[in-house]
Specification:
Nonspecific Lipid-transfer Protein, Chain A; five-stranded mixed β-sheet; 5 helices; alpha+beta
């Protein structure tokens, strides 16, 4: 996922491919914005028990995460820990940081990594 097209593909299929993970960890009414430098802005929305992803910013968000395409790729594939990326300044998070921590732990479990 080193290009805008790959980021688009990831988010376009995220709700279907990861519905169980996302719906299981996100509280009802949650909006998380992902601002991917070179890959667009995407909002993950949990509403009425299901999750959808839209290719734009919906407001008001509970959490906003910003990073480069390369760092997003590393986060998604488990090569970069979200906490370490945040503390190292590679990822900027505003709002409820706990939501990103929930996602990080859930995807780590899905990859078979204990967090």
């Amino acid at each position: 996922m080193r290009s805008a097209a790959q980021v688009h593909s990831f988010f376009a299929t995220a709700a279907d491919q990861h519905q169980g993970v996302l719906a299981g960890v996100l509280p009802e009414g949650t909006l998380i914005a992902f601002e991917i430098e070179g890959g667009g802005t995407w909002t993950v929305v949990k509403d009425r028990g299901s999750v959808r992803v839209v290719p734009h910013l919906e407001e008001p968000v509970d959490c906003r995460m910003a990073c480069t395409v390369e760092d997003f790729d590393a986060l998604v594939h488990g090569r970069l820990d979200a906490r370490e990326a945040f503390l190292g300044g590679r990822v900027r998070i505003e709002g409820d940081v706990g939501l990103i921590q929930r996602l990080n732990k859930a995807f780590a479990r899905k990859r078979g990594v204990r967090s």
